[in-house]
Amino acid sequence: MYQSENPCLSLAIDRLSKTTLGAEHFAILVRTAPCPGGHVLHDCTWPEMLTQKWLAWQEVFSPRGLPDVPLVHQAIPLPSTASPDPLNANGQTLPYTARLMQDLGISLWKWLFNGEIQNSFAQSQGIAIGREKRLRLRLEILDPELIPVPWEIMQPEPGKQAISLSQQLLFSRTSYAVDPLPRQRLKPDLNILLVLGHDTKSEIAPNLQLEQEAEALANILERCGRPSLYAEGENTGATVLCNVDTLLQPTKAELISRLETENYNILFYAGHGVPAADGGLLFLRPDARINGTELAQVLVRRQVTLAVFNACWGAQPERHNQQSLPRSSLAEVLIHHGVPAVLGMRDSIADEEALSFIQAFAQALTARMPIDEAVAVARQKLLTLYKFNQPAWTLPILYMHPDFEGKLIEPETVTALPLSSAYLRSIGTGEVSLIRGTILRVGRNPDGNDLVIRKQEVSREHAEILCDALPDGQLTYLLKDISRYGTYILRPNNGWQEVYHREVPLQSGDQIKFGSMQSETWEFINQDRAMSRAHLKRSL
């Protein structure tokens, strides 16, 4: 059966000003929500106690600290939200590190999901549960000083999963300061370019050692696509192959040339990296570097879907005069330029931890999971291996473009839906566009759209009519707006309603305008429903 896309709730955090008492004043905004009343704004202050907890967390869990950020040197009192000596499932007292991890996670959750934001979140979760989907939750951090905060550890209360580990949520960071994402060309397999750059552990790594490391990593990735070796020997029937090409300490020209001449959907870089204003620097070799802005050009041009960086500070902004520079981290720069998904590290990660994550992540991708779900699965493995009170599982930071649904490879062949008899009909000209299969795409671009409307107010990729099957076998339809100017829908007794970057259910007889109230009117007709109503009347 066709699986419609997950409902999405997007939150944005921005600094407004300081209050008269000197506290920092923030706005938390719901940018997108699956429910019409979910677009809310919440004003709040950043409490000093949360700053102290964040500093204490850094002192314990950031081996080198953060640039220009002071560290506290005394223990911070335990939170009032937990007992002085909380117990684990075995009745044992939690160690201080576990309490510190849990404390900050709960405090961040309560600060973010407060007031109307909590209500919007609860409504969105209810819609996702009603559709038997998971809620996709995305967080945009507009204040660069809050980017280093480990939002991935947020949890609602003791005993609940952290947000980035949850089975019910798909969590990632995002940015809306981007252009619309062109439709991605899905590939049948994982085609990975593995780049091993300069390693600062030695002035220059011996070639033999580097070749051995590359071969070992490539073998780990390639084995993930073999069914007999997936999930530690458990045969799951995986059919997606991992094809890996390697580059060892290439020059900038060699890296660009390889990306230009081959067809990759994943770039994986392992090596040294540092923050910088143009998206950080990757040290390809001692005499060759490439910054994020330069790398973004070729990745976007060649439609590389996912970039993964096992390099220090890939998800951290550059700092100048003790202030973080906006949109300066490698992950943010690539997303802003149009790379659909970027996975970086918040801090340095041990080689053993990185290999465990990479293996679990690649295995999840070969099982055709979307990227944000695959990251959650790999993060869960890190927690299992290295424990909740260690920072390993908190290190990966995933950014996804707001238009990107996380699909990396072509879906498996699915059971066909019953034949649809629904269509869109122009009230002015009588033109009919049948809804064949599971989706009808509407837009100005003749390439990739089923219904092409050549009007300026209509976006290149404007809207989608999604078809799904209910448990009783009946078909249901959703209108999803992905446009710049919105879509309008008319229902009896409700007048024209704007639909912008959200989904609404469609009923037979609904009238639709794409782009503006002056545009052509289309009527949605579902003959299956019409025939069902006629049959019911005859029966009565």
Proportion of residues in extended strands: 25-35%
Number of helices: 11
Topology, number of strands: 27
Biggest β-sheet: strands ordered side by side in the sheet: 7-6-8-12-15-16
Please explain how this structure is put together.
- Helices cover 26% and strands 26% of the residues.
- It is built from eleven helices and 27 strands.
- The chain has helices at 48-61, 96-112, 116-130, 207-223, 230-233, 252-261, 292-301, 330-337, 351-366, 371-386, 527-539, and strands at residues 8-18, 24-32, 41-46, 135-141, 169-174, 190-196, 242-248, 266-270, 273-274, 281-285, 288-291, 306-310, 319-320, 323-324, 341-345, 396-400, 422-426, 432-434, 439-443, 451-452, 463-469, 475-481, 487-491, 495-499, 503-505, 511-514, 521-526.
- A six-stranded mixed β-sheet has the order 7-6-8-12-15-16, with helices on both faces.
- β10 and β11 form a beta hairpin.
- α1 (48-61) packs antiparallel against α2, α7 runs parallel beside α8 and α9 crosses α10.
- It is globular.
- The chain starts with 7 loop residues before the first strand and ends with a helix.
